[in-house]
Amino acid sequence: MDPFIGTEPADLPAAQGLAASWWWPKAQVGNTHPGACHPLGMVSACACSGAYPTGYGRYGMSTEGAPAPLYDDYLASGFTHFQQSGTGAIRKYYNYFRVTPMIEPLDALGTRWKLQNESAEPGYYAATLENGIHCELTVGEKTAVHRYTFPEASSARVVLDFSYGGLAIEHGTTVPLRAGLESLGQGCAQGTVVMEGIPLSVYIDSDTPKSWRQLVWYDRRRVDGGTRLDFDYIRRTTLRPFGLMFMGPTRAGTTVEIRMGFSMRGTGQARSNLEQSLPGGFEHGFDRVREQTHDAWAGYASQVEVDGGTPERRTVFATSLYHSLIKPCFAEDESPFWPSKGPFVFDIATMWDMYKTQFPLLTALDPAKGALMLESLVRIAEEEGNLPIGYRMARGSDRFFRQASALAHTVLADGYQLGLEGLEWDWALVHMQDDLRRGYGEDFADRGIAHPVSHTLDLAAGYWCTAIIARGLGDHRLADELEAKSRAWTNAFGGDGLLRDSSFYEGGRWNYSFRLLHDMAARIRIAGGDKEFTAILDRFFGYGAGPVTQLGVPPFGPEFAIGQDLNRFQGLNNEPDMEAPWAYHYAGRPDRTAEIVHAALSYQFGTGRGGLPGNDDSGALSSWYVWASLGLFPVAGQNLFLVNAPAFGGASLHFGGNDFELVTHGHVESGIGEDAAGASAQYVQSARFNGKPLDHGFLTGNQLHGGGRLEIELGPEPSDWATKTRPPSASDRPDPARGGGARLQEFSP
């Protein structure tokens, strides 16, 4: 695993063949960071320069093309916590409780020192500042531990800035509203800051030398003799930095360890979180926490083991699995908004991407965590009034509602069909039904269509998913009503087999036209049938088209408009069409799926800091890579996994608590980037599941989670495998409301 992958602008070898015809409109950078993270933990820690969007690195804000440098070198003004991972402009950038080791006067706080000799692995980050201080970070689920090794200095210090937050870009800073901190003596301190409406508390324990002093500071001046600072109300215009400091002389090699426990429920719980992570005492906390977190990462990694593959492909795969498990943040018993115990999950910041790939992967690897996430979503609806489209460590309205609608419904439907335990499904159903009329849902319920028209697809799928749970709970009348409204997705399409003209969030109607709907059979009929649907897809994916020119550094000339007019697949640089390659399965052309996925895996990902084609979006893009490499793809809300040619010779998976073995025959290794030149896609010739022929190109989620053995015969030419029996569609099933097969029709309320 290489946590540095995705931290710089995309630096991939020139694509060849089909992949060369795809056009990338969004920022060509992964927006990841190499900081220390615990799998699905609440806390991260990383060097902070203030760069976009994680606080790490040297690039400024970018939404299209290659980002422009903000700094010439990799710099750090200290080390912060709670970084985003792979997101874009979400306006909540965290980077709280900056810790800065210094041998300079306190006036130099805020200086950005060059980073040297950086290294990182899951759960650990290290670098040396140009002033000679060696810095190491590790984290637990709710804790962080810093270890600094100083050169000889007459007055060294470790400064904790409670006022810092956000990024060094326009409108990127975060200012505390209220704050209080207290020096407790003997290397201990505690405090709380209210950031973005969240009371975030910290308890600090350190092992500073006995000769060191401990004091508070305000506006870069020591408050001699003071042990407390309290601020009842802070405005951006009146903010002056404040915090805590440990200081004293050092010999070369002197180490100082700063141990921090965090909570959103006060300093007492913050201390308890630190004590629970280090039972028996805080001594040597760094090594103990690092080992615990290493073991946690190793536990997840051992659940997905692949056979063969070039070293580069294996590195990208392992790192993709790592990036897939950074978010969302699980913070059990930490909700600041409701007092009861229970699951609390935040940083579902890019749910409109995560629900397609990342949530199914999380639920497969850790069904118990998946159930807790679903319970948390229902609790959010119960306590705050709606099922979220995105949810961050911030108080306020759900600003993601413009992106999509009813996404939590797909996750809940999958969880119900998988039999995840611990949820009150009748109560979940109540919230799912109520939430369908939220936002754009009012237009959909009243008129059968909503604009932006992509919300029509979202809401129709939401009604379908809600009907699944209603029918499973025995409420057939409600299920019939919900299913009837779920057919209104047809209103979103025009006569050319594509979505109607509308506004779209980051994309156009071509990018949104190939979602894997719950009734793909009817969707294909709208396009005119298999042949016509395949022809539209072929145009979208650039079959027969020549190479295109990608965007460089802004400002752009006419190439942006030229690229948009292509109406082309955006090549994993943008996620609205990330599932589109598998639409061919429903038209009896799994060979096309194999060709596109092979091209994407070969040319859209690589090793090194520039190894991602676009924002990782909280792990959604990396999860896509994991699934695609395994020859599987989840269809959100439908308890369905489509089968394709894997990129590895085999794999041993521990999904759903059971062992699943993937075996191929005839697999031919291929590299990535330049090493992929001349390598062709491989095609499934036949398949067997648990010893029986698998003539269709899909498995149910229960089959995958239940364990078993999938054998795939591969060959260099397309076959007739999975061309006759298609993945299930809603109109394939009897329609209980009509007493027969469902018919395609325009919906009218």
Topology, please?
Elements: E1 36-37, E2 44-48, E3 75-76, E4 78-81, E5 96-102, E6 113-121, E7 124-129, E8 134-139, E9 143-150, E10 153-161, E11 179-185, E12 188-195, E13 198-206, E14 213-218, E15 221-223, E16 228-231, E17 242-250, E18 254-263, H1 267-277, H2 285-301, E19 304-307, H3 311-324, E20 329-330, E21 345-346, H4 351-365, H5 367-384, H6 407-418, H7 425-435, H8 441-447, H9 454-472, H10 476-486, H11 509-512, H12 520-527, H13 530-541, H14 559-564, H15 590-603, H16 620-629, E22 632-635, E23 640-643, E24 650-655, E25 658-665, E26 683-689, E27 692-693, E28 698-700, H17 701-706, E29 708-715, E30 734-735, E31 740-741
Parallel strand pairs: 25-29
Antiparallel strand pairs: 1-2, 2-4, 3-6, 4-5, 5-10, 6-7, 7-8, 8-9, 9-18, 10-17, 11-12, 11-16, 12-13, 13-18, 14-15, 14-17, 19-24, 20-21, 22-23, 23-28, 24-25, 26-27, 26-29, 30-31
Helix pairs in contact: 3-16, 4-5, 4-6, 4-16, 5-6, 5-7, 6-9, 7-9, 9-10
Domain Glycosyl hydrolase family: 269-716
GO molecular function: hydrolase activity
Organism: Glycomyces tritici
Distance between the termini: 52 Å
Number of β-strand runs: 31
This entry's quaternary arrangement is single chain
Radius of gyration, CA atoms, in whole angstroms: 26 Å
Average pLDDT confidence is 95
Low-confidence blocks of residues: 736-749
Main β-sheet, in a few words? 10 strands, antiparallel
- Helix coverage percent: 25-40%
Structural class computed from helices and strand pairing: alpha+beta
Q: Please tally the helical runs, counting DSSP H or I stretches of 4 or more residues.
A: 17
Q: What general form does the structure show? A: globular
Q: What proportion strand?
A: 15-25%
- How are strands sequenced across the largest beta sheet? 3-6-7-8-9-18-13-12-11-16
InterPro entries: 6-hairpin_glycosidase_sf, GH-type_carb-bd, GH92_N, Glyco_hydro_92, PNGase
Domain Glycosyl hydrolase family 92 N-terminal: 2-263
Region (Disordered): 711-749
Protein name: Glycoside hydrolase family 92 protein
